[in-house]
Design brief:
4 strands, 4-stranded mixed beta sheet
């Protein structure tokens, strides 16, 4: 699994990097077949007095790319919301994969249904 964390208009400190990696452990616990993760942390300087913190993630798994984005006043809150959104997407993807695999098994003919000569 390749992990890329980048910051736009933001200096990535080791604390932020460790925080993101720690939160991504939750995703790996649910689903460990992740190919690539790209995290982009951004600080938007708006003309008003406030600063808006944005966190985006692109997660590549086999056959699908998952994307989530979160905006908050605090960067850590944006990361928490982002991981919650991504966690729901990963669980949904995983259940779809499991359901698809079980459907194929259900359609196989039973040995008791087979005609014996």
């Amino acid at each position: 699994m390749n992990l890329t964390i980048s910051g736009h208009h933001l200096e990535l400190t080791p604390a932020i990097r460790e925080y993101v990696q720690g939160k991504l452990e939750r995703i790996k616990r649910h689903f460990d077949h992740v190919i690539d993760i790209a995290v982009i942390l951004t600080v938007d300087n708006l003309p008003e007095k406030e600063k808006r913190q944005r966190a985006e993630i692109n997660l590549r798994v086999r056959g699908k790319d998952l994307h989530a984005e979160s905006i908050a006043d605090n960067l850590y809150a944006a990361i928490d919301t982002l991981i919650d959104k991504l966690d729901r997407q990963v669980i949904k993807y995983k259940t779809k994969q499991q359901d698809h695999q079980h459907d194929a098994i259900k359609r196989l003919p039973d040995a008791s249904d087979a005609v014996t000569p």
